[in-house]
Design goal:
CATH superfamily of the largest domain: START domain
Helix content: 25-40%
Order of helices and strands: HEHHEEEEEEHHEEHEEEEHEE
Number of strands: 15
Number of helices: 7
Strand order of the largest sheet: 8-13-15-14-10-11-9-12
Structural class: alpha+beta
CATH topology of the largest domain: Alpha-D-Glucose-1,6-Bisphosphate, Chain A, domain 4
Radius of gyration: 31 Å
Shape: elongated
Largest sheet: 8 strands, antiparallel
Length: 340
């Protein structure tokens, strides 16, 4: 009889427990905010660059020797990493960045059987600083044990959010100082154009980065000598096609001159037709330095973000001669990337 009562009591307790947990929310949210002194641009960079997470994440600091494997791009949507730690508080899992805009960055986490929470960082202006709100959403489902666990999520995870935000604040201040000390990169006016066919005469050679100038000068002289022998005239500024650009050791380039009529191959000089093509282009004014690299980088980004595809090597048209134009800010180079 006593055993029967005990059994009935256990069953009733289980029923009560099931009913009680049924009333518990199946979605749990953990949220923390902190107003940071750094500008949103610096904070955004630290969050959207996945390799930076190891510098500010509270969990990363629990095990600095955990195994990390990165995938996708370095920043923005699709960037992510997997981790594997012997520390039970860290465990193993996967994090992937979702939508990334200047004021919102979403993430997807995968803890395997433990669940797949989603999170979002919201950045908003507050006074002279930036308010960062870190919100994580976890679906507990209808599992009573999971629902009970969800009751303690805020106390378990909230403190780690707070530590992470304070670490992010410190790191963002350093990044803001670095950004302030770095000259602003000029934004170039990138366009899509059609390049018409033309007769050209070229020479192709390989050299190192520091010898591009001397090599181009010698190649143009050799082309001009062949043109004079054939009675051919130049019709526009000289150019160079960069078939391989792997500085500082390997630059495979083809110096060229547009001409008024079809020529003939002569020694190292090739006579050919430049075919009609669509291209992404920018007018770059300045010295052949980091500013030019920035122009090339922005063209690459334009091609990527606009869903275009390169269909050949890029080339540069040297409209101005730096030996004649002494003001480097007035030296014009037209940069072209053929696309389809």
């Amino acid at each position: 009889m006593n055993m029967k009562k005990i059994l009935i009591t256990v069953i009733l307790l289980l029923v009560v427990l099931e009913l009680a947990t049924f009333l518990l929310p199946k979605t749990r949210i953990v949220e923390r905010s902190l107003v940071m002194s750094a500008p949103s641009e610096a904070i955004y960079k630290e969050i959207s660059t996945v390799k930076e997470w190891q510098k500010w994440s509270a969990w990363a600091r629990l095990d600095t020797s955990m195994k990390l494997t990165y995938f996708g791009p370095e920043t923005g949507a699709g960037a992510g990493y997997t981790w594997d730690s012997k520390n039970k508080k860290v465990g193993a899992g996967k994090m992937t960045l979702g939508s990334c805009t200047p004021d919102s960055i979403s993430t997807m986490m995968d803890f395997g059987e433990k669940g797949s929470p989603s999170a979002v960082f919201k950045l908003s202006k507050e006074g002279t600083g930036t308010k960062v709100t870190w919100t994580m959403k976890m679906e507990m489902g209808y599992n009573p044990i999971a629902k009970i666990f969800g009751m303690f999520m805020d106390k378990m995870i909230g403190p780690d959010f707070e530590k992470g935000l304070h670490n992010l604040d410190s790191l963002s201040k350093l990044e803001a100082a670095k950004m302030a000390a770095t000259p602003a990169v000029k934004k170039y006016d990138i366009k899509v154009t059609t390049v018409e066919p033309a007769e050209i005469m070229t020479i192709r050679r390989t050299c190192t980065l520091d010898s591009i100038g001397p090599y181009l000068g010698a190649m143009y002289s050799e082309i001009n000598a062949a043109m004079q022998k054939q009675g051919i005239k130049q019709t526009g500024p000289v150019f160079a096609i960069y078939h391989v650009y792997e500085p500082p050791q390997k630059i495979d380039m083809e110096a060229g001159v547009p001409v008024d009529k079809k020529g003939k191959n002569s020694g190292n000089v090739s006579a050919k037709e430049f075919l009609k093509t669509n291209a992404v282009t920018v007018d770059y004014y300045g010295a052949y330095d980091e500013g030019m690299k920035a122009a090339h980088d922005q063209i690459h980004e334009f091609i990527k973000t606009n869903g275009k595809e390169m269909c050949g090597p890029p080339w540069e048209v040297y409209v101005s001669d730096p030996m004649v134009e002494k003001d480097p800010t007035k030296v014009l180079t037209k940069i072209y990337y053929p696309v389809k």
